[in-house]
Amino acid sequence: MEPESFFTKNTKAALKHDPPGEWMPPVPDHSIPLNAGYPAHSLVPYEEMNEAVKDLIEEEKDLPFQYLGSKKVNTVKKFVRERLAERGVVLLEKEILVTAGAIQGIDLIARTFIDRDTWIVVESPSYMEGLETFRNYTDHYITVPIDENGMQTEELEKTLKDRKEKNLPMPKLVYTIPSFHNPSGTTMSIDRRRHLLELASEFDFLIIEDDAYGELYFGERPTPIKAMDSGSRVFYIGSFSKIVAPGLRVGYVAARSDLLEPLAWFKKDLGHPFAEATLGSYLSQTDMKKRFEMLRKVYQQNCKTLISSLEKYMGDIATWKNPSGGYFVWVHVPGVDTSKILNEAMQAGVAYVPGKHFFVHEQEGLSYLRLSFSYVSREEMVTAVEKLSQVIKKHIDQ
Ligand SMILES: Cc1ncc(COP(=O)(O)O)c(C=O)c1O
Known about the structure:
It contains 13 helices and 14 strands. It is an alpha/beta fold. The chain folds into two domains: 23-44 and 290-397, Aspartate Aminotransferase, domain 1; 46-285, Type I PLP-dependent aspartate aminotransferase-like (Major domain) (Aspartate Aminotransferase, domain 2, 3-Layer(aba) Sandwich). The strands form three sheets. Strands 2-9-8-7-6-3-4-5 form an eight-stranded mixed beta sheet, with helices on both faces. A four-stranded antiparallel beta sheet has the order 10-11-14-13, covered by helices on one side. Strands 1-12 form a two-stranded parallel ribbon. Helix 4 packs across helix 10 (273-285), helix 5 crosses helix 9 (257-267) and helix 11 packs parallel to helix 13. The radius of gyration is 21 Å and the shape is globular.
């Protein structure tokens, strides 16, 4: 029996790529995981969740364990609607689909809108699991570079005009992480956000705005692209992973209902009603504005520590941009292939994500690496950066 012969064309094409998660080998216990894009242990509200679960079960008995039994799942949608309205995104209830994490939202959009011959636009670099998901559906990418003001929409415009002139296939979707980008930490300027919307209308494409880090700003709060989306071309994707707990697997997609509805054909009931009800119970007991303020303060301070460690230990060998929110600092180490020295760095006690995994064309990212300031303690961060600098210096000196 040849398993291959049973796979769909799509599966065969998808399986030509690396398996999911292949980009990060196991991190040894003694290594400080600056690779991890997780919330810090102390910032996961497990005690409050304990209360939320107890109250939920006391109040509703078996209901949260039924397929769609608990009314508390509606609290999640209500929270999303109210919070997004404060950020300028006014939505009807039918314009929100709660998903099993942001990543299910990305997957459902991809399944619904991408054929194997569909072209899509991604930023260069981009979120590696987003890329992994899109690769399950297509291998046709237009990549747009990022600078300190986010996606270079002027470059996108040039590319689109050029493709149109040459009668080349035009993209159907643009995937962007406009605020506190993973991995680059950059934020798209308001002018470019407007420009992207203009291009969407001129060249007739849809936009996926992945705003997983949108609440975690250190200074100015960015305006979501969706808030300016008068043509209803934007799928806005949000997540509770970075602001409450990733293991709940709760996120959402917001879009005009006729674009959103088909996603439900594929989602069916493959969400997490118990996790959603627990989150609903937690949200109704928590002052989330206060929580967001607390998270911003802690992450901003963490970020300062990471940046000052980089200045102290790597100022002469690397460059980086100071992020104004999110979880990550994107470091450029000219002349070093960061994927080749990862094992040595992990043996020396520090892990990071090699830059190449964030690129469609991997060679563009060889001399980059992503560090996270969300997960480990500030003391560990300083130690980790010192260790990393020692490993890198050995390779620069050679
Ligand atoms: C840009 C971006 N989008 C989506 C996700 C995944 O979110 P979720 O845990 O809700 O699937 C992440 C997590 O790292 C992310 O960085």
